[in-house]
């Protein structure tokens, strides 16, 4: 599956504005769905949460978390969390689309 097919198949779009999420009583948060291109095709990059965490211990997840006040938008949140959790700097990530 190539990038164009990913965009089409999953109907990627703009994220909901953070203020709409807050009004609905939800905490604004975002995750990155890292698709890594390797010689044998596209792969999803997942993380395993530490067994020592109080919440969601040991779960498999995408990198991400709550929006910080300094985050420009939810894409910035996902990129910051990816850097913090996986050490992948934002300049190495190409955002090709978003999901609600």
Tally the beta strands. Answer: 6
The separation of the N and C termini measures: 21 Å
As laid out across the biggest beta sheet, the strand order is 1-6
What Rg do the Cα atoms give?
A: 14 Å
What profile does the largest beta sheet have? Answer: 2 strands, antiparallel
Briefly note the structural class of the backbone.
alpha+beta
**Average of the residue pLDDT scores:** 85
H/E order of the elements? HHEEEEEEH
Overall 3D geometry? globular
Low-confidence stretches: none
Question: What does this 3D model show about the protein?
Answer:
The chain has 100 residues and is α+β, with helices and mostly antiparallel strands. It contains three helices and six strands. The chain starts with a helix and ends in a 14-residue tail after the last helix.
What would the keywords be for this entry?
100 residues; two-stranded antiparallel ribbon; two-stranded antiparallel sheet; 3 helices; 6 strands; globular; alpha+beta
Per-chain topology:
Elements: H1 3-9, H2 18-23, E1 29-31, E2 35-38, E3 41-44, E4 47-48, E5 60-61, E6 64-66, H3 74-86
Antiparallel strand pairs: 1-6, 2-3, 4-5
Describe what is shown at a glance:
By secondary structure, this protein is an alpha+beta fold.
